[in-house]
Amino acid sequence: MSTGFEKIGSDYRLQNHWIRRLIAFVIDSIIVAIGTFIISIPFTIAAAATGLPWFFFNPFIGPFFIGILSVLYFALLEYWYGWTFGKRIMNLETMKTDGQKPPLDAAFIRNVSKIYWILVLLDVIIGLATPGDPHQKVTDRVAGTTVVSATSPQASPPSTPPTL
Question: Which listed site, 4, 46, 79, 162, has its alpha carbon 20 to 30 Å from 15?
Answer without folding.
Answer: 79
